[in-house]
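EI: anyone free to look at a 370-residue chain?
SC: sure, send it
EI:
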Amino acid sequence: MSKNKWVLLIICLVIILIAGTIYSQFLQRRSKIPQIKVGEMQKNAPRLSTVADNLEVPWALVFLPDKSILFTERVGRVRFIDSNGNLDPNPIIVIDDVKQEGEGGLLGITIHPNFPQNHFVYLYYTYGANGDETLNRVVRYKFENNVLSGKNIIVDKIRGALFHDGGRIKFGPDGFLYITAGDSQNPSLAQNTKSLAGKILRVTDSGKPAPGNPFKSEVFSYGHRNPQGLAWDENGRLWETEHGASALDEINIIEKGKNYGWPIIQGDQTKKGMETPVINSGSDTWAPSGAAYLNGSIFFAGLRGQALYQAVINGNSVTIKEFLKGEVGRIREVVVGPDNLLYITTNNRDGRGIPDTTDDKIIRVNPSKL
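SC: here you go
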């Protein structure tokens, strides 16, 4: 081998060693978030603290009245963290018919507004039917003595696909259950008000169309591509985050019966009878997911954006701020805890991220220290 080739080989090896060292330091920095107990006072909370780690794609979480946590793992498991911050090593339940494929699997979770009386827990998950057909459903369980039982399917046969499965479920201030449904990779369905795909649905606690729905069905709003986050502000307005086709991710204010344009308009485009987003990401990509309202802002998760975003509300407009860029990787969920701190889940093990040795995690965020 010539002298020049030996020099080139040595240079390449040095570059590989340096890159490996930098990557190792990056993963170590991400994994060194201090462990905490859920009940710590807000004033003592660090900027970031780990609630639970070594999880498998935690998708959504909900606090129970006693400050314990239920959360979903996309593979089909519901997990439990007690009010002292201890993660049960065993799942509360494993849902056998969950179809984890692409963006599908066990997704949203929420509890009934009267949970202390009825102990109802709601889940949204993907399943297979008729061979290769993919569908989604919402089911209701009763949670007692750390056991989920009495499965009851309340909304069924929401079109699914490898991508664009929606999956967020939350009870609104009106007492009805809101459900985000993606267009199932069939954009035309978003404009078809007789289809549940590409919609935000609103139903009673037993799954019936909510009184006052605009089309006498489960459909509340339509023209959505892949809605992922729901949050109500102090005035009762419903804010939604939604994935755009290529960048052009959206934040919308959702109103009954309105058409949010997909696939006919997107970004800043306008058309009579269709709603333009409050704001969109332009050429950037947020890939927004879970959303929560806190102190005049909508905080929402960024998957591909790998950030926690804050949409500061000013009337009907917002200003976007960006935090944690690249610090914890892909962020799926954001909720406000009983301590008025933010709780987020990472999704670095979903096949699109770069997991460290302790991913995935539930992390508590002190917004006053961002």
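EI: The first helix runs from residue 3 to 31.
SC: 👍
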